[in-house]
Amino acid sequence: MKQYETVIGLEVHVELATRTKIFCGCSTAFGGRPNSHTCPVCTGMPGSLPVLNRKVLEYAVAVGLATNCHITRYCKFDRKNYFYPDNPQNYQISQLYLPICRDGYVEIETEEGSRKVGIHEIHMEEDAGKLIHDEWEDCTLVDYNRSGVPLIEIVSEPDMRSAEEVIAYLEKLRLIIQYLGASDCKLQEGSMRADVNLSVREAGTEKFGTRTEMKNLSSFHSIERAIEGERNRQIDLLESGGTVVQETRRWDEAKNTSYAMRSKEDARDYRYFPDPDLVPVSISEEFLDEIRSRQPELRTEKMKRYREEFDIPDYDIEIITGSKHMADIFEETVALGAQPKKVSNWLMVETLRLLKDKEMDPEDIRFSPENLAKLIALTEGKAINSTVAKEVFEVMFQENVDPERYVEEKGLRMVSDEGALRRTVEEVIAANPKSVEDYRNGKEKAIGFLVGQTMKAMKGKADPASVTGLLKELL
Amino acid sequence: MEKTELLGLSAVALGSAIKSGRTTAVEAMEAVLEQIERQDKEYNCYVTVDREGALKRAGEIQKRIESGELTGPLAGVPVAIKDNLCTEGLRTTCSSRILDNFVPAFSAEAVLNLEKAGAVVIGKTNMDEFAMGSTTETSFYGPTKNPRNPEHVPGGSSGGSAAAVAARECFFALGSDTGGSIRQPASYCGVVGMKPTYGTVSRYGLIAYGSSLDQIGPLTGNVEDCATVLELIASYDKKDSTSIQRTDTDFTKALVEDVKGMRIGIPKDYFTEGLNPEVSAAVLKAAEVLEKKGAVTEEFDLSLVEYAIPTYYTIAAAEASSNLERFDGVKYGFRTGGEEGLHRMYRKTRSQGFGPEVKRRIMLGTFVLSAGYYDAYYLKALRVKAMIKEAFDRAFAKYDCILGPVAPTTAPRLDASLSDPLKMYLGDIYTISVNLAGLPGISVPCGTDSRGLPIGLQLIGDCYQEKKLIQIAYTYEQCGGSYHETI
After folding, report:
1. Considering only CB atoms, which chain B residues are within 8 Å of A88?
2. How confident is the model at residue A264 (pLDDT cuts 50, 70, 90)?
3. Do residue B104 and residue A50 have CB atoms under 8 angstroms apart?
4. pLDDT tens digits along A89-119
5. For A267-292, what is the mean pLDDT?
6. Distance separating alpha carbons of residues B336 and B347, to the nearest angstrom
7. Which of the residues B107, B161, B181, B433 is marked catalytic?
8. CA–CA separation, A372 vs A329, rounded Å?
């Protein structure tokens, strides 16, 4: 069999984190009652007109700058015309002729070192509504809450050669966009969606093969499997003397296979033309400067700074900065006076463990830096011991409780009353003559049992080190 | 006040009569409704008359006038609204079957501005379906007849509004003008009609035909009413991205009888063989009147006039084909019954819901935007549009205003136009370039032909020069005699 090279380009849709929709003032909040976040504009009522949400432009430009794009200084919106009920006007407002960003790149790490993936363009557009088929009534219902939610589409060059590179590219985009605060980029929830354009060619040839476009990929896992499956399908076709047809295919996650949706022959003519209801957007130098000055520190810079500022392992830095949210918690907790190494430990051990147990993303962390700082202060001040701290943390992780108040309410504070502790130790010594004797006879281990008995009697609210010290003294 | 006297008043005169207590908003509304009752079966100016609502609102407005809360010049004055302007709770059809049952949830900004000023909406006027046509004969609700001679059309597409003003079935009306749809029916019906500079009146709530060309404007009995109405409806509106912030909308300040030293250009290319000699003579006579009052007139070559029609029909149809996609039977309006499957429902609904002229323009627009034709038609049309604007810029470097006819002929007879759409399109030759260039234009009556049909004089100004147009039109009207004396 011949050697084949896989050529992959991506179209990534990202839902922007604006409070309101792209062309009207309706809320973008997820999960409202059907059609409760709608108005004449986003339901396409006759006579309504779109007005561009400035925040959408700001986010799109911010993403463009962070991905080394040229910003189009005079850009326009175009109408993409097609009839479908999820689209109340029967045209989608998008950008074809003059997209907001062009010719950028991001760097990804591959086995052969770092390399650039080109970005062909980034354009702004509106999302469509949702169709819900009611099998019982045999009718289709439309929910326009999503209609007009702002999206950017990031179109890459065909620069990727493997599923690993695709994942690295998506991870890179996700981190950049999350760091910018432009989107939460959740694949499962659809705030980041990727369509994969894939072709194969014989190794060493220049000419691209015929490509297909794969849709409906809702996780990194399905992207990997779809790339593998499509690559093999195309190679099998070519090896058996067939040809690849340019078409759009839909990935079926459950069946681990894809099927053709439509071919190039029945491709629609969208009759794109500039939307006359929206004025062209002229981007001034001042506007660009404003966005530039507001660009936050991105991950690469943050990692560099952490290495310089904090004495924590590289591996910790990698994990913590792998989520903007986690990095924010880290920095805010440190800013509240906690020792970086301690904060990092809580995030790296207990937080990661609980996230894994509960199948959550770092973005879902709900406890506040204030509470984490308080918890660390409690343990540092020996108000609670590490076992109690873990117990408190677990509650805090789930309900973001104030650890100070929780410790007080549950009476978990260590007993610092020397007299009370001494009395308990004396009682334990009196009640366990056998162990006392063993210890006096040189069995060092026997003290462990006595410490345990004391802790038990103290209901865990004692510092094991102090207990050991006291026992040794009294024995 | 006696009904005939009342109905003979201009909008501004009625407003002051109400304010001074000589009549009331309710009396005025009753008079208008009686007039409609008596003659609208014949003229068919209205698609919908909101009899009860109008009387109720007139009563409320009267109270607010008496309490001193409403003091504007048109408080209490009954107004007719073209049926492509949304009116909350009042059926808005665009004279199309596809919107036969459509009741908007909000009112157009221009309507709200009038209502804020105390004007009282009577109802919705007939028009060419979706403003596509020049005769008001493409309406699903039947043609409107010209009150000057009911065997003739009132022009279009704002034919119902122009005819309602001429027939005294309202005191003034709103229309929309995409290629002459206010000025041409004003000319045919012998009333005043003005298309302001693009962006002056918010398009929010105007059901779009050609978005880049559409503009709302007044149809009135005289120039003073026209300036007064325009002053009220002109506003910057954040809801319309193409709306322009202007500080010079005190149009009534321009109601001054003085044209001394004004430079008026008369484009030679407007006075060619296609122009009816009687229309030509009346328009040139109007130029002489202005000259006598001290204006300086001069002939010049505007150029590109013959390109305006193909350019306009390419751009307007392209935008219309997309603007009208939302009428699909899914969300509101007419839906055919017994359909099977989504796409069949779309096709059947639109086939039955739209009339032939609308379908023709949708097909034309779909064609010019299709892959492979976009550059050759749509893009080229945009380029010509820019050239037409440049030609006007050159003219306005020399002239305060351009003077010419509104239409090549007076109102055609009913049933004489639709069979030859191309000929009908040619009738737009003097008006459409004004829309392509985004300029203001006004139509004022300047006489009648031998059959007694009105002739209109068109004055075209540079962007934002409505005041110059109003001043010239007002001066002309003062010496030419207002139409009220001739009705």
Report:
1. 326, 331
2. low
3. no
4. 999 999 999 999 999 999 998 888 899 999 9
5. 94
6. 9
7. B181
8. 9
Is B157 annotated as catalytic? yes
Q: Per-residue pLDDT averaged across B363-388, rounded? A: 96
Residues in chain B: 487
Instruction: Check if the beta carbon of residue B65 is closer than 8 Å to that of residue B76.
Output: yes
Q: Please, which residues have CB within 8 angstroms of residue A334's CB and are 6 or more apart in sequence?
A: A310, A340, A343
Residues of chain A found within 8 Å of residue B350, distances taken between Cβ atoms: none
Is B398 tagged catalytic?
no
Cβ of A50 within 8 Å of Cβ of B378? The answer is no
Q: What is the average per-residue pLDDT within A163-171?
A: 95
Q: For residue B338, is it left (φ>0), alpha (ψ between -120 and 50) or beta?
A: left
Q: Which of B326, B345, B366, B374 to mutate to test the interface with A (most CBs of A within 10 A)?
A: B326
pLDDT reported for residue A97: 95
ipTM computed for the complex: 0.96
What are the chain B neighbours of A52 within 8 Å (beta carbons)? 241
Residue type, B204: Y
| End-to-end CA, chain B | 20
Question: What local confidence, expressed as pLDDT, does residue B486 receive?
Answer: 39
Give, as one character, the DSSP assignment of residue A107: E
Catalytic residue among B10, B82, B124, B176: B82
DSSP A353-393: HHHHHTT--GGG----HHHHHHHHHHHHTTSS-HHHHHHHH
For A311, the 3-state DSSP assignment is coil
pLDDT digits (tens, 9 = 90+) for A310-359: 989 999 999 999 999 999 999 999 999 999 999 999 999 999 999 999 98
- pLDDT tens per residue across span B324-365: 999 999 999 999 887 678 899 999 999 999 999 999 999 999
Structural domains in chain A? 4-286 (no CATH), 297-410 (no CATH), 418-474 (1.10.10.410)
Q: Is B383 exposed, middle or buried (0-12, 13-18, 19+ CB in 10 A)?
A: exposed
- Find out whether A120 and A103 touch, Cβ atoms under 8 Å: yes
Strands B263-267, B401-405: pairing kind: parallel
CATH of domain B3-254: 3.90.1300.10
Chain A residues whose CB is inside 8 A of the B326 CB are: 44, 46, 88-90
Q: Do A90 and B326 touch (CB under 8 A)?
A: yes
pTM of the complete model: 0.90
Q: Which of residues 262-321 of A touch B (CB under 8 A)?
A: 269, 271-273, 276-279
Q: How many helices (H) and strands (E) does chain B have?
A: 16, 11
- Tell whether A40 is within 8 A of chain B (Cβ): yes
Q: Closest Cα partner for A59 from A93, A107, A22?
A: A22
Which amino acid, one-letter code, is at B445? Answer: P
Q: Which of A79, A83, A269 sits opposite B371 (nearest CB)?
A: A269
A142 Cβ under 8 Å from any chain B Cβ: yes
A266 pLDDT band (50/70/90 cuts)?
A: low
- The C-alpha atoms of residue B81 and residue A113 are separated, in whole angstroms, by 69
The residue from B107, B157, B161, B243 that is catalytic is B157
CA B33/CA B50 separation, integer angstroms = 9
Active site residue B468: no
Residue B244 φ/ψ, nearest 5 degrees:
-115, 140
Of A208, A156, A201, A151, residue with least CA distance to A22: A151
